Amino acid sequence: MKQQPKRIDAASCREATRRIDEFLAGLDAEPDLESIPERYRDLARRDHERLQTDVRSDRHRDHRWRARKCLRCQYRGALAGAAITVRPCGLCLEPQQYGSTNAGVLCVACASAHGLCAHCGGDLGGDLDRTDYPTSPTAVSAHE
Ligand SMILES: [Zn+2]
Ligand SMILES: [Zn+2]
């Protein structure tokens, strides 16, 4: 399947960085088990603990770094359809191939050049105060 490139700009990058920050904050908080049916709470608690351990030890650090993924995109499970997906990088527009419908937004070269997560476009270091974000070519309109 084909997806449109995501429009990259300061607003979208800031929003992605905010989600990384929220993810990390949520990791330190007690999981909200009240909203989960009782019989699944143990499972949810274990999932939360495993996620905490994975992120704190950054278990797949080398792979994560090569793929230029933030902690959230590397470790948070994402539900996605199993379909080879092609999506142009939001900056250089070079088509990128992904193994699922959960496609990233940037190629590794652009992500690397700008210190962004190739998957969500957030600041790789999770810096909420950052302002020097790149912008997509004007041909790229606002698609998710
Ligand atoms: Zn690119
Ligand atoms: Zn990310």
Summarize the structure.
The protein is mostly helical.
Report on this model:
This protein is mainly alpha-helical. The protein has one domain. Helices cover 38% and strands 6% of the residues. A two-stranded antiparallel sheet has the order 1-2. β1 (85-88) and β2 (95-98) form a beta hairpin. The longest helix has 19 residues, at 10-28. The chain is globular. It starts with 9 loop residues before the first helix and ends in a 30-residue tail after the last helix. Bound molecules: zinc ion (2 copies). The site of one zinc ion has 8 residues, from α5.
Q: Topology of this protein?
A:
Layout: H1 10-28, H2 41-57, H3 61-66, H4 71-75, E1 85-88, E2 95-98, H5 108-114
Antiparallel strand pairs: 1-2
The protein binds zinc ion (2 copies).
| Average residue pLDDT | 92
The shape is globular
Which ranges are low-confidence, i.e. pLDDT below 50, for 5 or more consecutive residues?
none
Q: Order of SSEs, N→C?
A: HHHHEEH
Spatial order of strands in the largest sheet: 1-2
Radius of gyration: 16 Å
Number of strands: 2
Proportion in β-strands: 5-15%
Indicate how many domains the architecture comprises: 1
**Gap from first CA to last CA:** 15 Å
Number of helices: 5
* Helix-and-strand structural type: mainly alpha
Major pleated sheet: 2 strands, antiparallel
Chain oligomer state: single chain
Residues in helix, %: 25-40%
Hetero groups: zinc ion
